[in-house]
Amino acid sequence: GTAQVIRESKNWNTTINGTTTSHFMVRDWQLSSGRYFSAAEEASAAKVVILGSAAAKELFAPGDDPIGAQVRIMQVPLEVIGVLDRKGPAQDDVAFVPLTTAKLRFLGSASGINRDAIAYILVKVASDTQMAGATSEIEGLLRQRHRIPAGQADDFKVQDPAAAMEAQQGAIRTVALLLFAIASVSLLVGGISIMNVMIVSVTERTREIGIRRALGGRMRDIRLQFLCEALVLCLLGGAIGVIGGVTLSMTVARLAGWITAIDMRSIGLAVGFSAVTGVIFGFYPAHMASKLSPIEALKVE
């Protein structure tokens, strides 16, 4: 349910969730401080609560330790025994109490159905391959517990995340393909720009090329020189892109409250693509420079 959590002069409207300690294991949700419910507290409907990071932030001033403090929910005094790690803006604004506490002290007694009514059950399986079998077993067990005759529709719904996960993966693949297409066009345009710059550079430095050839410079030396110049240009562009991308990602993550991780392999891949672009699009101008005749080149004023 949703209720006001009151701490001295502060109050905050948040989601109250009656559950068991297994809830946090199923969701891989760690504590930033304090502890989980004990078996004795779950059995005795103890007046204890675990706060999400957002709820704790709203109820306690910076530097205050919430552990051991007392809050009130629907006039029931509860001791804060734990604060959860951040899990995302949509999930951190919550308070967890033992399931028996919710049933006996406020949420259950306020329910229009009955005190034992629950909203959902979370189930965790060891691997994806066991999902189908677990779903079938859960459906069979719930039909048995609810005494549903054969042929009658279920009065519950089992949600298998496999379909949602597949749809999510499909969306990720689509976005990845779109980003790949945008990156390919950007690389093509950037490569053509590098090639044009290098062609202009070769044209403007024709006399320099002629002098080098006249002094004994080989064709491969001229080709290597201009290839290196194109490579340096692309690597500089790649470095600027990496710095700009990392800075922008971290800035947006900080402003939006997201958790962002920078993969060093992605940075290496980006720099590698920059180098390959420089070699590919710089080869033609470099080859053109190496083919210039020293005599013709020296005639250029």
Would you write up a description of this structure?
There is one protein chain. The protein has 301 residues and is of the alpha+beta class. It has 2 domains: 2-122; 163-298, no CATH class. The protein contains 10 helices and 7 strands. The protein has helices at residues 22-26, 39-44, 53-59, 99-105, 131-145, 161-204, 206-214, 219-256, 264-290, 294-298; strands at 2-7, 10-19, 31-34, 48-51, 70-73, 76-84, 94-98. A 6-stranded mixed barrel has the order 1-2-7-4-6-5. A hairpin with a 2-residue loop joins strand 5 (70-73) and strand 6 (76-84). Helix 6 crosses helix 8 (219-256), helix 6 (161-204) runs parallel beside helix 9 and helix 8 (219-256) packs antiparallel against helix 9 (264-290). The radius of gyration is 33 Å and the shape is elongated.
